[in-house]
Q: What sequence folds into this?
């Protein structure tokens, strides 16, 4: 029984979702909805437009996928072309959303395809065939989607729902024009959902252009999940590597995510750690799509234990059970800190995030502390490194 004055917790059964979807949710191991799911699912079920201010790690993917699946199951024109288009900034996010979708839709018969660039001709043909046959849900990055659109075989005339995920990220990456071009190919009468971790004026502008009288939900400003134990070390650049070795060598850590500012730092650090016998690989934008996927898979399956990354994996990438996040460099952008640290302690688990701060990075640390609203606990480096 809820305490007096406490709101009753909703369960997934309260959303009027079909049995086939509830079975999918159960198979994914979700037992109760997260706050954004509690707030977002009823709005989307009512076919309203929605702006969701929420970062990854909040459960926003299921918040939009579940009610959209319900709409598709109820759609009488099912199979008449593409029903739902989800536009995302990166291929990693497209693949991840498609994986979630396959879990939720397993018992429903709803079909989906992820469409993204950086792949070979075989994959292009697979994407083309899937689009030709009319998958119910298409999850796509903007550039590749436009390439397919221009070939003229995408049946979008019956499209009912459009989702823009990580909209702020897409604008940062320069996709504004592409998004507008894509939307010009869609029916005007549709449901549009937009998710963004931040709400700068450009996002408001895009929303007023594309959404119709939207409801808005805002989850409390970006803050690392409560389960993350955060700490900083104040340490010179010349000693960062020694501290890192102290933390990693002879430790039983299954998954450590290590962030650097640049891809060269990521490559060099991975090389150095490998040379002292640690199980490590680097992921960054110089890698081909196939190589990135392989590295991520190796890390997910704990074949390698340390992943050195630039910010390409800090947003959106779904790797559970990360024991430790280390920011070898303080991120330039305070929000990137929240995204990086959000890689640990996803949906209720616990984790540790350590940040190495040199003198020049003090201002960035101050910005982070301002954003999250508290000071991060300081640990003193071991005596030999002070
Ligand atoms: P997202 O913010 O959508 O990227 O989700 C973050 C992580 O939380 C993913 O690993 C999801 O599988 C997980 N997740 C989302 N919703 C729930 C839920 N209701 N119960 C348990 N895990 C969830």
A:
């Amino acid at each position: 029984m809820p305490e007096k004055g406490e709101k009753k917790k909703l369960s997934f059964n309260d959303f009027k979702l079909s049995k086939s979807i509830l079975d999918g949710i159960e198979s994914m191991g979700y037992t109760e909805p997260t706050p954004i799911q509690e707030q977002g699912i009823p709005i989307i079920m009512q076919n309203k437009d929605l702006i969701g201010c929420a970062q990854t790690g909040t459960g926003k993917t299921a918040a939009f996928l579940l009610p959209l699946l319900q709409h598709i199951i109820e759609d009488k024109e099912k199979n008449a072309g593409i029903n739902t288009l989800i536009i995302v900034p990166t291929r990693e996010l497209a693949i991840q959303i498609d994986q979630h979708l396959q879990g939720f839709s397993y018992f429903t018969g709803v079909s989906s395809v992820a469409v993204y660039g950086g792949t070979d001709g075989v994959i292009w043909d697979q994407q083309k065939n899937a689009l030709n046959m009319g998958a119910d849900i298409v999850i796509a990055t903007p550039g590749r989607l436009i390439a397919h659109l221009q070939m003229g075989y995408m049946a979008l005339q019956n499209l009912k729902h459009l989702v823009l995920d990580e909209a702020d990220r897409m604008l940062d990456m320069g996709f504004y024009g592409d998004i507008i071009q894509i939307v010009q190919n869609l029916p005007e009468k549709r449901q549009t959902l937009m998710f963004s971790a931040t709400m700068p004026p450009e996002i408001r502008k895009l929303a007023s252009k594309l959404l119709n009288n939207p409801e808005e939900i805002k989850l409390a400003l970006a803050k690392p999940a409560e389960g993350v134990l955060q700490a900083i070390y104040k340490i010179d650049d010349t000693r960062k590597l020694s501290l890192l070795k102290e933390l990693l060598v002879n430790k039983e850590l299954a998954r450590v995510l290590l962030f650097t500012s640049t891809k060269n730092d990521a490559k060099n650090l991975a090389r150095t750690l490998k040379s002292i016998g640690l199980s490590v690989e680097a992921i960054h934008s110089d890698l081909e799509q196939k190589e990135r996927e392989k590295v991520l898979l190796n890390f997910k399956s704990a074949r390698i234990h340390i992943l050195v990354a630039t910010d390409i994996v800090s947003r959106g990438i779904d790797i559970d059970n990360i024991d430790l996040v280390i920011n070898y460099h303080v991120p330039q952008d305070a929000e990137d800190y929240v995204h990086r640290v959000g890689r640990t302690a996803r949906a209720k688990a616990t984790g540790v995030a350590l940040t190495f701060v040199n003198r020049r990075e003090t201002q960035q640390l101050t910005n982070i502390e301002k954003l999250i609203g508290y000071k991060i606990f300081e640990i003193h480096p071991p005596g030999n490194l002070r």
Observations:
- The CA atoms of residues 88 and 141 lie 5 Å apart.
